[in-house]
Each structure stands twice: as structure tokens, then as C-alpha cells.
Amino acid sequence: MSISSIGGSRNLYQNRSLYTKQNQNLQKNFQQLSSGRRINKAADDAAGLAIAAKMLTQSNGYDVGTRNAATSQDMVNVAEGGLSKISDSLQRIRELSIQASNTAIYGDDDRAAIQQEIDQLKGYISDAAKNTQFNNMNVLDGSMKNSHVASGPDGSGMNINMPNAVLDSLGLSDYDVTGEFDISAIDSALEKVSSERSGLGATYNRLDHTINYNSYASYNVTASRSRIEDLDYAGAVSDMKKNSLLQEYRIMMQKKQMEQYGSVNRLMNF
Q1: Cα dihedral sign for 138, 142, 147, 151?
Q2: Which of 70, 177, 180, 269 has the highest Cβ tally under 10 A?
Q3: Taking Cα atoms as reference points, which of 116, 117, 118, 99 lies closest to residue 107?
Q4: 142: left (phi > 0), else alpha (psi -120 to 50), else beta?
Q5: Cβ neighbour number for residue 132 with a 10 Å cutoff
Q6: What stretches of 36-107 show up as alpha helix (H) in DSSP?
Q7: Average pLDDT, integer, range 179-191
Q8: For residue 117, what are the CA distances in angstroms to 76, 114, 161, 184, 235?
Q9: Which class for 182: exposed (0-12), middle (13-18), buried (19 or more C-beta within 10 A)?
């Protein structure tokens, strides 16, 4: 084989390699434009892909934490609604107790009748404390003390204490106006319920701050991941045009070299 023939073969091989590389670049351009992402596989940007994956994990954690906090707010609302009704019943019991303490007008039979209404109200309080539920869990019977809310992106968060409003906790199990009684027991129960409601309000606000923070953090992490992963369409289109022109040039040069290589071979064989 002549030196010219060897040189022509080498040039053809080089052009074919460049053509293959250019074709791969074009395929990458098409894939990026169709997906809207700069990184579609590890080969596109291994370090960027690893960072983006960590950011995705973090933003997903914030989103789940936000949902957990919002659901906990719903639970707090249910509990606060139950306490509101209990407070109303306690206020009525206090009114009846003041009425029963007026011995100048009300006798034993009258106080017995008043006690019947008080017993009905106590029964309502007991039912509300034992049956107010969220997701099949009692929220007013003291069984949900120190409950964990996974509001952080890694499962961390805050602990909340749901109230205990059963009659024993309120000190009213044996409250009876037919004999000697002390209205201060009702006042203590009202103060306890009021304190529990205030605590639930503080818990709700804290959860609200957590939701706002998580939403803000998730937005920022997602935006950062987008800057790593997402495609610059203007730049990608420009790059694809450039690669298309280079591809056409490689095809033209390869065709020209094949023609020259064929001409040289014919002359050598002549």
C-alpha cells in the first residue's frame, strides 16, 4: 500500500471518529431539548447530578414536613373545638352552681333538679373528652402527651402535648350541688381548660411558622436544583445549530475525502 493510500485511510478514520462524536453531541442536544433538562444521565455532569439528587431529597423532606405540620394543625383545631364546647358546658355548670347556692330561694328538691342538669353537662364533658378524635386517635383524654410532629426535612421536628379534659383531670368527677360544694372547683376547671386552649393556640402558631419556613426553604432548594439541572434553552438551541453545521461539514469533508481516496487508488492501480 502506498504512503498516499495510508494517509488517506488515516484521514477517513479521523473524520469518521469526528462524525461519530458530532452525532453524539447532536443526540445529547435533542435529548436535552426534549426533556428540558441539562442533566439527563450521570455522564452529562456526574458532580452536578449528585448535588441535584441531594437537593431533591432535601426539598422532598421539607414538603413532607410541611404536610405533617399542616395535618397537625388540623388535629389542633379539632382539639380546640372540643375544648371550646367543654368550656361552654363548664360555664353553664358555674351558672347553675351559683343558682344552687342561693339557699334563700332554692330548697333541697330544687338543688336536686339543678344537679340533674349538671350531671347531664358532666356527661357531655366526659363524652367530649373521651370521644373527640382525629384520625381515630383521642385528642382530649390525655393519651397523646409528648406526641412527635416530624416537621423537619430529616424527620426531626417538635413535640406537642394534647390536652387532658376528662372529669378526673378537671377535678369534677364528684362535683355535686345537693350538699356542700365549692364553686372554686368550677373556676379551677375553667382555668385549666382556658390554659389548655392557649397552649393549643401557641402550638398552632408554632406549626404555622414551621410551615412558612419549610415552604421558603423548599422553594430555595428547588430553585438551586433547577439552576443545576434545568436547561438554558437559548444556549441549547444555539449549541444544536452549531453541532448541526459541524455535522454537515464533517459529512461533506468525509464525502470529499472518500472521493479523493478513490481517485488515488484508481491512479495507483492504473
Answers
A1: positive
A2: 177
A3: 99
A4: left
A5: 22
A6: 46-100
A7: 95
A8: 30, 5, 32, 19, 79
A9: exposed
